[in-house]
Amino acid sequence: MKTIDNSRFVPVNGLEMYCEVYGAGQPLILVHGGFGSVGMFAQLIPQLSANRQVIAVELQGHAHTADIDRPLTYEWMADDIAALIGHFGFASADVLGYSLGGGVAQQVAIRHAGLLRKLVVVSAPCKSSGWYPDVLAGQRAITAEFARTWVGSPMQQAYASVAPRPEDWTALAAKTGQLFAPDYDWSSEIAKISAPTLIAAGDADSIRTAHAVEFFELLGGGKKDGGWDGSGMSIARLTILPGVTHFNILSAPQFVPILTQFLDAPMP
């Protein structure tokens, strides 16, 4: 396995992908949400890296990672994560994706199952109709022109402070809107995932609570009584955090104990 330091740019699929590495042990890849950065996980990283190696990445066109001449797609970004795992020489890794990153993490499970040990999907659906209709409409309204109205906002200023080409802000917005534009439904592929999977959402999230349950059932959960000894449980887990929204789930105090219990549990 290659020696790694706290932060670096990793060559993957034509990208120079920025990542930060903390701790040692079983590797866990953290994949941020749209327009985000590794900073989304600032409150999680110290706790998660206490007994594992945490690699927080920045996706194509986001924050420190410069854009390249290709669209943003869940599939290609998943291929980038797979290439990153290969670069570090890991036989497999746990992958946690939040929001847009949750779609990327699902595609890692679908396209690169052999590289995945455990999957964590946070506040992300497995089909476009899993978002509330108004949320989906808002995502699809993102354009370069609309992003110009965000110039000076905290989100845009955070991007500009680290992006190698701050003028790419509107291009990132245009590509993100195009990513959200088509309908998608990965249900049939999700049902084939064999890796232990944790689905996490808030009870006031941007994804429908009913969809989180549907997602869980695709993975074999919620089909029957687990039994007095737990033998009837699937290897999937579902947590709906009370009083939690899409925007504060990563900092919710009840999330880390649930997450670490899942990650630390023996493989089935």
Q: Which parts are unreliable, with pLDDT below 50 for 5 consecutive residues or more?
A: none
Specify the CATH homologous superfamily: Alpha/Beta hydrolase fold, catalytic domain
Describe the global form. globular
Average pLDDT figure: 96
Question: What is the fold-level CATH name, i.e. the topology?
Answer: Rossmann fold
* Residue fraction in strands: 15-25%
Helix content: 25-40%
Element pattern in H and E: EEEHEHEHEHHHHHEHEH
Compute the number of structural domains. 1
Question: Order of strands across the biggest sheet?
Answer: 1-2-4-3-5-6-7-8
Largest sheet composition:
8 strands, mixed
Q: Distance between termini?
A: 25 Å
How many beta strands in the DSSP annotation?
8
**CATH architecture label name:** 3-Layer(aba) Sandwich
Per DSSP, the total helix count is 10
- What is the name of the CATH class? Alpha Beta
Structural class: alpha/beta
